[in-house]
Each structure stands twice: as C-alpha cells, then as structure tokens.
Amino acid sequence: MHNPFSYKFFTKNRQKLKGHLDDDSLVLLFSNHRMPRNGDQYFPFRQNSDLFYLSGIEQENTILLIEKGKDYLFIDEPDSRASLWEGDRLRADEAEKISGIDNIQWTHDFEKTLGKLLHSKKNLYFNVHEKLNTGGVKSQDEMHLERLRRDYPFHSFLSLKPIISELRLRKEPEEIDAIKRAIDITGKTLDSVLKKVQPGISEKEVEAEINHDFILQGANGLAFEAIVASGRNATVLHYTKNSGICRDREMLLLDFGAEYRNYAADITRTFPVNGRFSSRQRECYHAVLEVMKTVQKDIQPGITIKELNDKVIEQLTEKHIQLGLYKRDDLKNKENPVWKKFFPHGVSHFIGLDVHDYGNKNVILDKGMVISWEPGIYIPEENMGIRIEDDILVDTPAVNLSSGIPKEIEELEERMK
Questions:
Q1: Terminal CA-to-CA distance of the chain, rounded, Å?
Q2: Closest Cα partner for 405 from 266, 287, 284, 308?
Q3: 3-state SS, residue 388
Q4: pLDDT score at 1
Q5: What is the architecture of the domain spanning 173-416?
Q6: What residue spans define the domains of the chain?
Q7: Of the listed 260, 354, 387, 390, which one is catalytic?
Q8: Of 356, 408, 411, 414, which residue is the catalytic one?
Q9: What pLDDT was estimated at residue 325?
C-alpha cells in the first residue's frame, strides 16, 4: 500500500519547529495512552497526531525530545516475551529509518537523559493547551507536566500548541497526497453504498458496508464515527446511533470519511432512499447545492471561515424564504434568528491529521490549508435533513479535492439505478 511519508517529511517538520526555538529550550511530546475498553481489552491504538507529525512513530510508550541542535527518540526496548504476545516492537534502526532521528534510546533511560539536559535549559515546551484539562482522562503530556513542574520549580513551562497548530495549518505535498487518498477511498465506498441502498435497508447495514469498503481499500478505518441518518434522523447533526430503517420517499444523509496514514477525509452526501428525488426533495437539495457552488468561489487566500460562513447565511436565508420556511419579516428578530433553526452549524472547519484540525473560524486562509465545505438545510417537520460536504484545498483558485464524488441530482440518480 502506497505510503507518501518518508523520514524526510518528519525531519522537515522538526526543522520547521526548531525555527521557533532558542538554545535555552526543550520540546517534549509523549505518545497517547493505550485506552482500556473492558476487562483486559484495549481500544485500537491511535498515535497522538502531533507526535506522528514530528516523528512518524505509531507505537505507544514513545517520547520525543527536541532541542535546537539535536533530536532524541525514546521507545520501548524490544522484548521477546512482549513479541510473543503482541508482536515485535520497533528496533532502534527501524525507528531511525521511519523518523530520521539517529539518536534512539530506550524509554527507561528517559529520566536520566532529561535530567542532564535540564542543567543547561530553562524553557520546557509541553504539548498541552495553555488552559489545562481539568476533567476527564489526562494525557501523558499533562501527567508528566504536573510531575516536572514539582521537580523543576525554577524552569519555565510553555505550551507547544500555538507553534504546532501554526505549522500544521499549511499542508505539505505528502499530506495532500494522503488526504486525497482518504477522499478517493471515501468516494469509491459511496459508489458501493449508492448501489446497495433501497427502501427497507437498515442504517446499520449501510454503516457495515462503509467499514467493509474502507478496510478493503487500505484505510486505517473511519476518521470519525460515520453518520448514517435517514429521514428525520438527518436533522440531528451528530446522529451516530445508525439504528433506523431507510424508508421509501425519505432521504439518507451520509457524513463519513476514511482515515489514510492518519489523515482524514470528511464527505457528506444526501440522496433519496428509493433512487429518485421527489419535487420537494429536488427543490430543497438544489437550494443547498446552489449556495455551495456560489460561495465556494470566494474560498481563497486572505478570507476567513467566519466571513465565508456569513456569506453562506446570507444566501441560505434567501433560499429559506423561497422554500416557504419563513417570511422575510421573520428575519427582524436578531436575538433569536429564525434561520438558525434550518441551518444551526458552521459551514467549514480545517481538516488534516484530525478531522477537526487545528485552526478556528478567524484564521486567515492561506495556500496549502485544507477545509471542509458543508452548507445544509434541516426541516424536522418534513423529516428531511440535507447536507452536502466537500474537502477544499485553499489556493488561487481553490481546488475541490473531492470533485470526483458525485453530488449533482442526475449523477446520484444514475449511480443508484
């Protein structure tokens, strides 16, 4: 299976990070926990996205230590007993080949190495948010930060997040390659689903088809829990029960995306369960598609997601009035805008190693950023929710990375025949 990432990619990312460091600083990143499931079982391990971005290592109990002139990677020492039960751990030469780091040490040597380095350093960057998590499961980074603050009270402890988020906003060619592959897998899976869906099929069976096709095509699996929402279920924005039945004369909304080499796709398509749009479904669907196409032309460097969102709201309110959802006079209530009932979410977010990647609605878009693009209309009284979502590479002009996935009414009806 094609792997777009070599050690050069991870080395380049560390070099970009070092451009923000001085000689008195150390950066520390810890791998994710193995998350308990039940009994002696664990959920499948998924590496911390930032640690992967800087090292490529996908093994638990991994620590990355970076200073201006040198990198240190700490991994578990291979053990014959562990290999018997869980498979081989990375050898030092294998970890070096993946990461491009030639200084590989075992995790049991970490404290000794860190202690020596801290004699000449005063700033420690930790991969935690500036406002620390106060509830839920603490990350390894948070746990080690608490301990080291006690042990080294005269050092300065800083958040790495502002730096790493800025670096990850703009995607390298290898990252675009991985996202495009995730999108391609998602598109091919949609083709399979369109041929399978018919009145009476369960949402759970559609979800099973998605999982099956993703794995067969070499994806890690789902980038997020798939939303398979038919009829009124589609008016629940994050519906993931997927426990209903797809009924004749209703629409089915699929919001799903493959994860490939840890990079996400995020695609939504909505189509009639019986393969033919009714006149009302066609009218509502076309309204969403028209707004999507019109405002997409404004995606370019220099604009923000908030500005794009405002443009979409302006256009959607006109569509709402044309569809008879409310009257123009109803828009006078600014405190509780009537349009929010029919479009209660934002139109875009950043995509990358996380499906909701670093970046907020006020970030000024720049070349190399990847965003979702997803207007919608939700009408609970008509058992209808319509959302259409593509993944867009910011450029001049913007590039729709998912343009090959059908969304025109005629295309969808033809694929469902």
A1: 32
A2: 266
A3: coil
A4: 65
A5: Alpha-Beta Complex (3.90)
A6: 7-169, 173-416
A7: 387
A8: 356
A9: 97
- Annotated catalytic residue, options 144, 349, 358, 391: 349
Backbone angles phi, psi at 174, to 5 degrees: -65, -35
Alpha-helical runs (H) found in 56-139: 80-86, 92-99, 110-117
Using CA atoms, how far residue 278 sits from 16, 249, 271, 286, 354, in Å, is 53, 8, 11, 12, 37
Q: Is the pLDDT of residue 130 over 80?
A: no
CATH superfamily membership of 7-169 = Creatinase/prolidase N-terminal domain (3.40.350.10)
Q: Is 356 a catalytic residue?
A: yes
CA distance 261 to 137: 25
Instruction: Supply 237's token pair.
Output: 């924005």
Q: What is the pTM of this model?
A: 0.96
Contact yes or no for 149/157 (Cβ under 8 A) = yes
414 is catalytic: no
Amino acid present at 312: V
Q: How far is CA 134 from CA 30, 52, 111, 138, 357, in A?
A: 19, 25, 26, 8, 22
Is residue 190 a contact partner of residue 254, using CB atoms and an 8 Å limit?
Answer: yes
The one-letter amino acid code at 113 reads T
Backbone angles phi, psi at 83, to 5 degrees: -60, -35
The dihedral sign for the CA sequence 16, 20, 25, 26: negative
Q: Is 255 a catalytic residue?
A: yes
What pLDDT score does 134 carry? Answer: 65
The CA R_g of the chain, rounded to the nearest whole Å, is 24
Is residue 354 among the annotated active site residues?
Answer: no
